[in-house]
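Two quick folds needed for the group meeting slides. Do the first one here.
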Amino acid sequence: MLSDVLKKEYIKLNAECKDWIEAIKTAGQVLIDNGVVTEEYVEEAIKGVKELGPYIVITKGVALPHATNKIGVNKTGIALLTLKNPVEFGNVDNDPVYYVFMLATTDMDSHLAALSNLSDLLAKQEFFEVMKNAKDAQSVIDYIKANEN
């Protein structure tokens, strides 16, 4: 379930980031602070976008940065960063990005149910409103728990 890997302490609301690199670093710092990943993991996620392009912008306004599970992952987790002002990742179809879900996983399977839940939520305009208007992380978690399958 998404709520198993996206915890209240993994959410940072209304962050101010000047560009996509800072957005990934800020989301990554949330995971670093909670012992989920190391700095090396965050640098690998940035490197991946530089090398492969903005494929991580998965739908309008949403990025899902990640890297290989072989470098710097201590446990599976997803951070959510909402941005006060959107940033451009260079994805012509889905920029600008307002929401960054930083994914870290210890293996190839443990996060699949969580990603399925996230995909379902991202199909709901209501979820975007919840994230946009959230005053605290708990309100986002409450919505996720009430709506994950």
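Then this one, please, same format:
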Amino acid sequence: MLEFDLLAAIARDPGVVLTRQQLLDAAWGEDWIGDEHVLDVHVANLRRKLGDEPSRPRFVETVRGVGYRLRTDAQ
């Protein structure tokens, strides 16, 4: 369910970078308190389910120091 929420959040505006905080809010809610690195685990799970490689992403792209986005040139 969390991976779906993350995918839905980044799919709303393909190509637009969502910050880590925006994604945490989308999946866990604004009141959630915890380690933000839990996001990395769920993004990794999402990538695995999509058959995506972090080193050569086709779908979910990491934007260092900012967050993640859905690639618009996915092949």
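Slide caption for protein two: The longest strand covers residues 60-63.
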